Amino acid sequence: MSVNLATQLREGTKKAHTAAENVGFIKCFLKGTVEKTSYRTLVKNLYFVYSAIEEEMERHQKHPIISQIYFKELNRKQSLEKDLQFYYGKNWQEQVAPSAAGEAYVKRIKEISETEPELLVAHSYTRYLGDLSGGQILKKIAQRGMNLTEGEGTAFYEFAEISDEKEFKNNFRQAMNDLPIDQATADRIVEEANAAFGMNMKMFYELEGNLIKAIGILLFNTLTRKRAVGSTELATAAE
Q: From CA 29, how far away is CA 18, in angstroms rounded?
């Protein structure tokens, strides 16, 4: 029985998707304001989230529903490990732990894996399709915003095993549309996808404090420099 799950997910998460894009951290990011401390904290949280998703997806890879959308080429854990080494150094494992929001996200993934593994479809959709859709744009923003060179700190956005991202997304959506589920299950998956957007938003909210502080310091330094230049000009004119 086909219920066109991909279509229902797209339509059923529109409000949540828009809300996530309007969180301050994301709005600033999309405008090119990328503060490295906040960004590496996001990478750290994503590492724990993706590790949980990929561990549980692998665990249920023979599940009648999960098996249909289990694509190992989507896995982000190893890419995030490369980025964490760049941002935290070789001993990054000793320095990173999930934030409160990241920990709650991981807990939810583990919980549904034990009780309703089919809901993992929602988390796969929410994270991976978003990564594939805007990855290259976000990569360029991160590079410009943090003055990164190619190959530095943006491995997360690279899908080395996927040659045609557009084709892959189409195949992924078709696989979701072909899942052997009824409408009640589809409704629960859409509900879980909205919850996933909410959990992502909570991680973004946590980052706003660092971002606001960084912008404040930048503005303060800019004003201080301008005042210093102005004072110098006045002193020169008075001589």
A: 15
